[in-house]
Amino acid sequence: MRHSIQVITLGCSKNTVDTEHLLAQLPEDAWTVYPEDYAGKVEYLLINTCGFIFDAKQESIDTILLAAERRKKEEVGKLLVFGCLSQRYAADLPALIPEVDGWFGARELDPIVRALGVEPSAHRRNARYADNSGRAYAYLKISEGCDRRCSYCAIPFIRGAHRSVPVEDLVAEATLLAGRGVKELILIAQDTTYYGLDLYHRRALAELLRELSAVPGIEWIRLHYSYPEGFPEDVLEEMASNPKICKYLDIPLQHISDKVLHNMHRGVTGDWTRALIRRMREMIPGVVLRTTVIVGHPGEGPAEFEELVDFAREARFERLGAFRYSEEEGTWGAENLCDDVPEEEKQRRYDRLMSVQEGISADFNASRIGKEERVLVDDCLNGKLVCRSQYESPEVDGEIIAAIPEGRDASDYVGRFAWVRIVAAEDYDLLAEIIEK
Ligand code: SF4
Fold it and tell me: For the whole prediction, is pTM greater than 0.85?
């Protein structure tokens, strides 16, 4: 008899990768994996939780409570919970939700595999479960944990110390993904620029980029979560010279005011950050920069906030996302700083910054009208091709929408590269036509 399992994955792309590694340990001939929205009977229901900020924790708890109802109605044989929330509140949750059969942490998958009655196999350590989406991109988690101590962040004590995955394991995983039709790798970690320091005693991200770009079939590599302090110059050189590295960088800066950066324990100053951004733009002409910032952090008065808005105007990030500060229990900030910016003021600052950014992003989109760009076609929705160029990352940026040329079929394009001419810019997405090139 086949076993049946359903995994609901919450939170970020790092959790998605963990789920895919876990499911890859289950022998295909003995297990049926049901999609997240399946509502029928299953032998095992697993929930991979997020415990990063209040909203994420709430979503995780709501999801567990709904699953506990299914468990009570005997639609679920065993309910297992793992990931950041259960790691963070391991002492409290079992008594609060007794319907859960097993609670597991965030760093080790082997105990969960064993709880499913399967002995984890070292051979399948780099394997990844594939659903039927046929996506041509995949996330590659290059390390786990974080050695930084940003004062507002709970991740280091949830995910533990930084631990790089060896280059050869990542190359093996990339080779396997390429064999399945993946053409774009998106490198993720808590801090990608820290890669190698624990394992090789040097920053080895540039080296890793070179090795991965040699994997046959991989044509684009994209970098996310690149911490600014200690940013390795050789990564910029690699991005400038290696055509497989997308001219796109996600670099979470969080703020620009010295006072706020100091309170955040970010290890950089405003001037240092400005110089880094200038160097990136000089070394990689045309690079698209995405950043995230926090508004309303302790120490951010009106002057510090205005400095942040001015910085957004001068740096002209093609993409910028903002969070309103929320105190996270157990962090240095929660214990030592005063969360004294009223919630309405945080919202006002958020709205103002985002309205400034809207204009900058719109200018960037408009500047692309008439240009020819190489795109990867992710999907076909409502009869239109959903594409991205090297300047868009999936799930966080806009898309490029193109009609299917007459006489052609969506299957001629989905999962492949194509060329488009951008014909119009909407608020978020771009409209384009497919061209022959
Ligand atoms: S770099 Fe800072 S914000 Fe990012 S996970 Fe580490 S401590 Fe948290």
Answer: yes
